[in-house]
Specification:
mainly alpha; 3 domains; Na+/H+ antiporter like fold; single chain
């Protein structure tokens, strides 16, 4: 019997992976962010007889899914941009979360029969966190200003912690029947934040020290899998914020990884984490759609039309609350950044503020938070309207992810923000400085080396001077010359010719598979490098 159960789990898991791959391909064909397509697909699958029935387990989300996704997101975040935009990020990650909880607590008693402000606060805290995957993928594809993308990514990185802390306070007040004092609440929040950050940095220091003595790709990738889970569990064991601990650990190690990762390990690690996070996100978004039967099955005493009206009304409230916060929040952030931090940044335009406000899409953390609500109060009574909170959360995820996600691209185009930012010369200038340093090193080394190698140095200098000329043209002439574009195309074409020749030699027994894999690795690096260069030229 146990063997059959294991086989069923395996079949369901494989089926879900197949659905993720199939609908991700469909999303690429439709040029739509895959989270939107996967949620819709999961929703459709939930109505098919015999489709896998998977109930979302909040512990599985918080302990198995959330840590690696946060860690990967932190790893890909630039600390410089995060620090520069920190005030704007915190105005959303903390200010907007608080405004959302307060707004829903105030409005819920007037919209949902039977709700009081405490139940409204719980509902507001459940849906306060946002998921930026769909929003940022759209923003990057349409070349939205990088400042907007950085703020959206930073918000989703931090507001998981603030939203879950707000939920903890709101649930405690409702379950126990007592409200926490402002002083006690502030001290508890300070402990969660400070202890979480310190624990995350402590783990990061240990990992950095360990990495100095290891040079083995599989071992280092295995360590990178362990780190987010260990950091999260360690922080939670001290009753600190596991979310902030993982974020702090990821930000620090990402910045230091250039010093302890070898080139080969770095390539392997990025490839692994790209695939790992895609699978996790894919399974999660399909699972969200599959929750509908469970959510509807728990609802009693409400007509379907009434539920739909509730879901749409609550989604509209959340969208309006976010938009209401955006404008004064942006003004306060601008004032702090210019007057106190002397950052000398321009006030974002109304169009940019509106777009950031329109990207408040909810995801799996909100649904897991709803499922994590206790079943009973301290006196044994059932948790009031728990099933309705579940349904409202599910409705908000569908409306914000699907409706806002699908309307975001036309809105960006209609507001004239697609590709609105001027070319960023930072990369070209940095590349030119790197090449100049290499040329200076070559010239000094040539003066000290034997004359027999003069031809070698001349060849290398000519190569680097050509690369320097191309780098200097990147910013001065974004639409580079046809000759440079042809050169890149020829290099990629010649790499493919070399690969086909190597495969032909392997097929005829003239080289082994080991040698072929070595050649493929070298050619893959070359072709990937120039494929990226080609993409930059087309996007310029």
């Amino acid at each position: 019997m146990q063997s059959n159960a294991i086989h069923v789990v395996q079949l369901v898991f494989l089926a879900l992976l197949f659905f993720v791959v199939l609908f991700a391909i469909l999303a690429r064909k439709l040029q739509t962010p895959y989270p939107i397509v996967l949620v819709i697909a999961g929703l459709v699958l939930s109505f098919i007889p015999g489709a896998p029935r998977i109930q979302l387990n909040p512990d599985a989300v918080f302990l198995l899914v959330l840590p690696p996704l946060l860690y990967a997101a932190a790893w890909q975040t630039s600390w410089r941009e995060f620090r520069f935009n920190m005030v704007s990020i915190f105005m959303l990650a903390f200010g907007l979360v608080g405004f959302t909880v307060a707004g829903v607590a105030l409005l819920a008693p007037h919209v949902f029969q039977g709700f009081d402000w405490r139940l409204g606060a719980v509902l507001g805290a459940v849906v306060a966190t946002t998921d930026a995957i769909a929003a940022t993928s759209i923003a990057k594809r349409l070349a939205l200003p990088k400042r907007i993308v950085d703020i959206l990514e930073g918000e989703s990185l931090v507001n998981d912690a603030s939203g879950l802390v707000a939920l903890e306070f709101a649930v405690a007040a409702l379950v126990s029947g007592r409200s926490a004092s402002w002083t006690g609440g502030f001290l508890h929040l300070a402990y969660l934040v400070v202890a979480g950050l310190l624990i995350g940095l402590f783990v990061a220091f240990l990992v950095e020290w360990f990495e100095r003595f290891v040079e083995d790709g599989p071992v280092e990738i295995t360590v990178s899998i362990i780190v987010p889970y260990a950091t999260y569990l360690l922080a939670e064991s001290f009753n600190a914020s596991g979310v902030l601990a993982v974020v702090a650990c990821g930000l620090y190690l990402s910045r230091k990884s250039s010093e302890f990762f070898s080139p080969a390990v770095r390539i392997q690690a990025w490839a692994f984490w790209d695939a790992f996070t895609f699978v996790l996100n894919g399974l999660v978004f399909v699972a969200i759609g599959l929750q509908l039967p469970y959510v509807l099955g728990e609802i009693h005493g409400f007509r379907f039309v009434e539920l739909v009206e509730y879901g749409l009304a609550f989604s509209a409230i959340l969208i309006v609350l976010r938009l209401l916060w955006m404008y004064p929040g942006a003004w306060v952030a601008h004032l702090i950044r210019n007057r106190l931090l002397h950052q000398n940044v321009r006030m974002p335009g109304n169009k940019q503020i509106f777009i950031v406000g329109w990207t408040g899409m909810r995801g799996v953390v909100a649904l897991a938070a709803a499922f994590s609500l206790p079943l009973a109060l301290a006196d044994g009574r059932p948790f009031p309207y728990r099933n309705l909170i579940l349904f409202l959360t599910f409705s908000v995820i569908l409306v914000t992810l699907v409706f806002q996600g699908l309307t975001l691209p036309p809105l960006i185009r209609a507001l004239g923000l697609a590709g609105a930012e001027a070319p960023d010369c930072e990369e070209s200038e940095a590349r030119a400085l790197m090449l100049k340093a290499a040329i200076d090193h070559l010239e000094k080394k040539r003066a000290l080396d034997h004359q027999d190698f003069a031809a070698v140095y001349e060849e290398m200098l000519n190569l680097y001077r050509q690369r320097l000329e191309g780098a200097e043209q990147d910013c001065a002439a974004p639409h580079r010359s046809a000759a440079l574009a042809r050169r890149i195309d020829l290099i990629r074409e010649l790499a493919r010719v070399e690969r086909q020749t190597a495969i032909h030699l392997r097929n005829h027994g003239r080289i082994s598979d080991d040698i072929l894999r070595q050649f493929e690795y070298e050619l893959d690096l070359t072709e990937t490098k120039y494929a990226l260069a080609s993409q930059r030229m087309k996007g310029a």
